[in-house]
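Methods, example record. To illustrate the input and output format used throughout this study, we show the complete record for Probable replication restart protein PriA. The sequence lines were provided to the predictor; the line carrying structure tokens was produced by it.
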Amino acid sequence: MTGTRRSDRRPADGSPVARVCVDVPLAHLDRPFDYLVPAELDADAVPGVRVKVRFAGQLVDGWLLERADDSGHTGRLAYLEKVVSPEPVLAPEVARLARVVADRYAGNLADVLRLAVPPRHARVEKDVRARTAAPDENPVAPEEGPAVPEENPAALGEGPAAPAGPDAWRDYPAGPALLRALADGRAARAVWSALPGEDWPARYAEAVAATVAGGRGAVVVVADNRDLDRLDAALHAALGPGRHVCLSAALGPARRYRAFLAARRGDVAVVVGTRAAMFAPVARLGLVAIWDDGDDLHAEPRAPYPHAREVLLTRAQLGDAAAVVGGYTRTAEAQLLVETGWAREVVADRATLRARMPAIAPTGDDPQLARDPGAATARLPSLAWTTARDSLRADLPVLVQVPRRGYLPSVACAECRTPARCPHCAGPLALPSAEGIPACRWCGRVAAAYACPECGGRRLRASVTGARRTAEELGRAFPGVPVRTSGREEVLATVPGGAGLVIATPGAEPVADGGFGAVLLLDSWALLTRADLRAGEEALRRWLAAAALARPAAAGGRVVVVADGALAPVQALLRWDAGWFAARELAERRELGFPPAVRMASVTGLPAAVADLLAEARLPAEAELLGPVPADGERERMLVRVPRARAGALAGALHSAAGVRTARKAAEPVRLQVDPLALF
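The corresponding predicted structure is encoded as:
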């Protein structure tokens, strides 16, 4: 193992040196260690392969980062025990990116590499290597499809991909210039605000085609597999078969590893996928892109908790690649890219926007309340009901967005309105159906004999109405009309033409042939009143995503939001001006000192452990400590805030302090998160 002093001396036996990242999740061991390469492993022990090494008396996994002729360690070096596979799965540029990401998020390199390189699948490796040795045989695993994608002339240098057509991105004044920059291999950076009804997979496919035509590769990340399926189909149409691969954890170990190897070996120039694709090894990377960067699915739930947007932007910076951050809405982070000049906004002019927009109306403004006084409290005000009725009469489908899934996900005492809580764990009680028995959403225990602790009442009333209960109510309101639901249990991809009601939770809205005639946005209070810094931003994101599925106003498209029209997110929806709202949010966060205007780290654990880590940390002089606030159970959370220019110093100080604690084997763990999505 390496020491702290460097002597640059050649090992006594003349064996070459391998620098290895050992897969040990301890902060004080977050550095490469030197090992000797025995003669029998010399040919296979190349940078990027998986290895086995002896570490602290145990055989552990590792990645061989680089070879060297000498070592900085003054003591005796151990030998590599084994090369797990001669396949160099870790590309040099991905290793460099992983180190930068680990430093950015106060994490360990081994943790990031575990995210970047999928688990090995020996049979897939064997098939791929056999195909390389004997390409005519091309062994196939029947349940997985082809062993590798079909031949890709663009990736193999046998011909460029067809560039995007002249009509591509024509609705955006800066769009054609963006495509020209991609085709020329320039590092264009764009924040794209998509028009209502935009076929965003086709636009991204055109951008990718322009990049490939310029001889470079691309990585595109989306939030979920439904978006991935749409993008996959668009790329198949734009590039042809076998010229890209999809990377997603949902593919299963074998198919995911096969796609990963195709990218690593250079068989394809384009990789698309969910956040599993943000580290995809693409040679000569020319474009990184992300769709709907505000979706919380882009945030990795495993340490060190990187966000796909930040990883991709870091790749663009390190590799001098172009970057596109797109969506119907715009996050404060994307707005900061525009305001600092790092990226240019790609937006349509107002005339084009007005031609593509549906007609949008709120139910809580003064004129509507004058016509319908009950609209302030009704769940389905008359404006929403008549809009849905008129659309159904015109034989157009209607989309109803409901923030919560289930039947009645939250109930309260019918007498005193006290929220009903589980007597065992204090979790919220929910009703699964009209005749169902209340049960806890946390521990699952049934509360058949529930009695209100305040008044003793036994009757329950709805506090929050879920998608299934909404479908039941609307089925009675519109008899004879088909009612479908789309949510976590069953996601509809598309809706056929013809009248019908679709009740969907956010993110599960299907695409209708020709667009929806009406979109109803119910229970807006459930989104706007959340105790979350991003509540308004998230509400607007979900509303715009649903409203974008409506037809233009000229074709009968209508959107009704059950909310007060004076609220800032509602105003942004009515004008379809996500840029204005993002600039407003960023200005407010800058004034209050919240991300992304500043960098903030969350330190969570038992009070003594949090205090111990902060006492060890040599925080920058500008650091401010906020808290503590309760986290969960007995744990608490402290927030550390610094200016953006001091972000590296903050992450380094916290990582070093974590290393001190792991070195002395502190019993209680502490969770470190830099710029977490949830601060409260």
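Annotations derived from this record:
Residues 17-91 form a domain with the GIY-YIG endonuclease fold (CATH 3.40.1440.60).
The chain is about 30% helix and 20% strand.
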